[in-house]
Every structure is written in structure tokens, then in C-alpha cells.
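Dig into what follows:
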Amino acid sequence: MMLEQSSHPRSLRAKDSVLTATTELLAEGGLPAATVDAVSARSGVSKATIYKHWPCRTAIAAEAFGKQMAAAIPQPDKGNAHDDLAEQVRRVSEFYAGPEGLVFAQLLAASVTDPAASPYFRKYFLDLRRAAVAELWQRALDRGEVKPQISAETATDILFGPLIFRLMTGHAPLTAEEADKISAACLHGLLKD
């Protein structure tokens, strides 16, 4: 069960320090480097305080990583559904193709086997990413460019699921060219004629 975070300034500073330290450790060595001991040492926040706010290191990493990805992948606004969605697929593919892709794969795998971490991964990573795509989808719906019977949830799965599958299996590359092929194939069935 996720704990509500305190709004006390000291608690907020500690949380920010922990998330900053975790982001740095993830960048340096992935999830294996982001142990609670390492986060505590880097952030100057005691392990007791860390465990007061998070149940495990994967939960901390999921929150830190989700915030990092939100900042790293801004929403495109190219004026039409095709270009916006294709650009978003390209940006996410590029993110996954970089060092962050390995961290994402590690977090996804750890969240599958760690029930305490799963809610954090969904809230701070998946839900935020899905909400961003839902905004793009809503803009497209408002402009009448996509089929209204297709939900943002379904569109998100269709557009971004192949990227995660490629990342996790390594069966095909995550390049801009391949991202464009994925979005073109997906959008052909999603966009109105």
C-alpha cells in the first residue's frame, strides 16, 4: 500500500533528495546501483526515513524514473493527430533505445516480481505516460481526426506496446526509422480516411 507523502517542508526536502539521488544512481548503474544503502548515502537521508515513505528500492526507483521520463519526453504539438502521435512514438522509442531503456526494462521486470513496487511503477511511470498519450488522443478526437470508438487506452497500447516488446525481447531495433514504421502501421488503422 502506498503511503501519502507529508507536505512538511523537511519531509519534502528529504523526498526530493532521495529522488535526486536515485535518479543519479539509476543513470550510473541502473536499478542494481540504486540500493537503499546507496540512496541513503548519496541523499543524506536515513534509511528509516526512506522506508517511512517507500516500501522498497524499486518503488523509489519507479517514482524517480517516472518523473525523469516525463521531463525527458515533452508533448508534441504539430497541429494534427498523425504528426503528433508519430512524433511521440519516435520520442519514446529514442528514450528506450538509450541507457534509460535498460533502466525501464529493469524496473518493469522488478515490478512484476515485487508486489510492493507495482503500484509505484503504475502510478509514477505507466499512469503518467498513458495520461500524456490520452491528452494527444483527446486533441485528435476534438479535431475529428481519429475514430471516436477507439479509446485512448487502446490507442496507447497499439502505438507503444510494440516499443516495449522490442525493448524487452531485443528482436528488432529501436530506431527512428523503425518507430516511424510502427506508427505508420498503427495509425493507418486508427485515423479516419
